[in-house]
Amino acid sequence: LKVSGVAGTLRLSVTGVVTATSTVECIPPTATPTNTPTPTPTPPPTEIAAQVTGAGICTETGLVTFTLNNPGATVVEQAYIVTNAAGTVIATGAVTIPAGGSATITVSSTPGTVTLTIPALAISISTVCAEPPEELPCGYWEIGPDGLPVFYYNTKACEPESLERVWEPISVGGASCPPWSVYHTFRTGDWELFRLGEIPDKPGAPENLSQAINPEWHDINPSRSPDNAWIAYASNRSGTWNIWVARTDGSEQRQATFNERSISIDPVWSPDGRYIAYESNKLGNWEIFVFDVTQRNSPEVRLTENRALDINPYWSPDSKKIIFESLRDGIRNIYELDIETLDVTRLSDGQGVDRFPQYSNKGDKIAFMTEREGRTNTQIAIMNADGSAVELISDPNGEASAIAWSPNDELIAYQMRLGSDIGIYVYELATKTTRRVTDTQSLNTAPTWICESTTLLFTSNAPGNADIYSTNALPITAPPIDVKREGSQLTDHPETDRDPQNSPSEEDASTRKARDPKRQ
């Protein structure tokens, strides 16, 4: 008999003819060995952490990105926390890092230290995010190294402003040239426009024409009306830079443009007295604008319309054209604008960078600043009013600027730097002769002419600080004068007096032409 599956004591009993009993002790069977492998233990988290590295970087768009690199085995769904410098949690989540690969975690950043922590991996990665860049307004400015405003603009922040104006008309009389001048002074703790000399029929009239005394307010760029009763100028007293007008007897100041965010500067009164032209970025980029001073509530009118900047307007003697500087062909050139048709014609020959054009008083020639023949310094050049016959008239080794035609168009005055010296120079067209008017003992700048004469006004630091001086430009063969001994000192104040204006009737030396975007 066979039985199976039992263990322990078994007893067999047989009954019937024969009776028999049998007992046997059965033991449990020996277990059969198997080939099942023993599982390999998972490494503890600290072993993974030793494999993972990372770094963080902040972006200008206000984000911080952490990059984790894993040369070891895959790390699956590990929780992370991102905190700022104050320890405040700014983001949480989970990250998987493939074996031999990398993963990124991007969150919105805050200025200061930002830290990514993965507790299970014992990883902590920090990076420092800087303060976001200042959001620059449409038009903005700063005081430059010489104390005068420098202007900038940010097209991205510009939104068109209204061209409407509230304006009471001005009646402008016949043209004449006054026996007085206008100049810039800092004697009030801000840039003001003062009159130098008395008005014949108004003795004792206030000499401060702009009258906006405040350390945060400045007045620059005077342009005289043909009848000498008014000046137009640029001022920031309204909160941003606008065009203002003031009576030359100091009795009235009036706002003429009404920007809230943009900048309008560099006014030029038309010879017929009807218009004031100026440059502004109130519609996005620098353009030439004009308004009619003789009409009630006359709007501002944009004369140029181009994506490139258009600046430095100057009227023709008949008030029918404006020449200006533009980047519309990729390089600064001189263009002519017909006031009636608004047609624009390029006058430059394309051989250089041409800037700051100025008609002669007869209107048959144009003087301008130019960079030519591969040079980066600026020379003075003249050409016919149609752009032909360009002639360089200043030293090619100098840096020349601040052009001023004499009232009779026979002379051109300018300032020029040669090495460390800055002096006043005069060029005589008939003889093609140049005279250095001032010597090297002082810095002399910003020439202008006294009406119907060959007498120059200019700025000099001969007394130790900037004051207004005068001297005769002729004879053309005369040696330079010692300004302190031979020049006529017209102002004497411990604060700066500079950049006079008489003839031409527009002053440009006070404008710093940094009109390309500072940061965009």
Draw up the topology in text:
Layout: E1 8-14, E2 20-26, H1 45-49, E3 53-58, E4 63-70, E5 75-83, E6 89-97, E7 101-108, E8 112-118, E9 123-129, E10 139-143, E11 149-153, E12 181-185, E13 192-196, E14 219-224, E15 230-235, E16 242-247, E17 253-255, E18 264-269, E19 275-280, E20 287-292, E21 301-302, E22 310-315, E23 321-326, E24 333-338, E25 344-346, E26 352-359, E27 365-372, E28 379-384, E29 391-392, E30 399-405, E31 411-418, E32 421-428, E33 433-436, E34 444-449, E35 455-460, E36 467-472, H2 483-486, E37 488-489, E38 497-501
Antiparallel strand pairs: 1-2, 3-4, 4-7, 5-6, 5-8, 8-9, 10-11, 12-13, 12-38, 14-15, 15-16, 16-17, 18-19, 19-20, 20-21, 22-23, 23-24, 24-25, 26-27, 27-28, 28-29, 30-31, 31-32, 32-33, 34-35, 35-36, 36-37
